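Hi F.,

I've been meaning to write this up properly since the lab meeting, where we talked about keeping a consistent format for the predictions we share between groups. The idea is simple: the sequence comes first, exactly as it goes in, then the structure tokens exactly as they come out, then a line or two of notes. No screenshots and no reformatting. I'm using this chain as the first example so we have something concrete to point to.
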Amino acid sequence: MKARERDNQAHQLRQAIGPLPESACAWTLLEAVAKPELRHTLEKITVRRLAYHSGGVAPGTLFFCLAGEKVDGHDYAREAVGRGAAAVVAARPVAVGVPLILVPDTRYALSSASACFYRFPAAKMKLIGVTGTNGKTTTTYFVRSIYQESGCRAAILGSNGLLLDGLQRSFGLTTPQSLEVQESLAFMHQQGVSVVAMEASSHALVQHRLTHCAFDSAIFTNLTREHLDYHHTMQAYLEAKARLFSLTKNKFGRSAVLNADDSYYEKLAVLSGDPAPVTYGIRAGRVTVRADNLTVSAEGRHSFNLLGWEKPIRVSLQLPGLFNVYNALAAAAAAWLDRLPPEAVARGLQGLAGVPGRFEEIKTVSGYTVIIDYAHTPDGLEQVLKLLRFKARGRVITLFGCPGERDRGKRPLMGRIAERYSDRVILTADNPAGEDAAAISAEIRQGMRSKPDLIPDRRNAVFHALAQAAPGDLVLLAGKGAEGYQLVGDKAEPYNDRQTVEEYLALRSE
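Output, unedited:
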């Protein structure tokens, strides 16, 4: 997402928040990171806004120079001052003509100042963090559903944006920048929210986007290959995810919620620092919350006995797939930690009918079904395709791509998985960014024995996939989920899989 779009969304959110807060003293905001000799200067500066994109600067702004993968905020410091920045926070000297505050890490400084500017909203609500490779979004939806059934006003902050009742605001990141996190939390607190379920990406944890949030509990769903372009090794990726545990209010135990069936459980139990983590699972010998006596319908929806409370309670999920049983258990375990009644937990789990972009089904008049899913990792794609293979009466047609400028090692792995479970595979673009979509598809093909259809333009590829479908077929559009854009070069072009399907069906008068 481009900087201007982020600025516009941040401006909209500030308008929704209203007048809180009007201003703050620069020293108050930066006392934790600034040198003491700057106190006299900073006490004279009134800050009315924080920004890390020059386009979001207005008079009275405290501007933070963040160095990204492609753009360095230090290069825009003078532009920010020209727009009215009252002071600049930087990691290296820049000539700006206003007070310059040098800090070791501007991302940490932004996180600290943002939390202070918005009066530490995370401390005023129950905050439940969810991390892991797959299942984060659906788990937050289960958490919200459970707490709403328990009488709480609950909201979500994650891949699908800020969700509160009918209000939704997108950010383009699984976890937004720390300024948007604190703005969002302040807004939700102002609206009377008492519980927030928040996704915590590994990037966000390493980049201090959540450092000044205080979580009541930290859920870890699972760990499989992803983001190795950034973290390089699975150990580093694991340690990045595990940082969430250090952000809990209770650092001495009973705040970590772990999947005991995950292959990384033993390592996570150590990294969590929790002597008695809350656990969930199906196969593991001893867990806090368990699903027992599972049955599955022809549509792949599971029913099970939920164990962990005084008496078992029968739960029937509307969301299909064994992976959603685990997502439900993760949310239930967080509820167990809060001593919520099992009846409310069961109602919350059973009441969730769908999650945008996560196994979203569109049944057509022609008799085939389209499934839109965010699956963008080898494990995520395999889990979804296993479910489709179980459900299929006809063929499974899979369309997907891999993001550009990201982990290239997973590309042939995903090609192999798609080929194994599909009758037909179509390779296309999925946020190619600075890479050529056809070149990405060629790397995916290296893991395949058969010849897939190669259609770089995703809209054309979706039209092609649907044109091949016959009654009883299942067509999987994987990778983008509910995303509303296609990242090509440095431009976020409007695009959405569901809208493309609806356009095709309208043209065919279905």
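Notes:
DSSP finds 18 helices and 25 strands in the chain.
The two ends are 33 Å apart (CA to CA).

If this format works for you, I'll send the rest the same way.

G.
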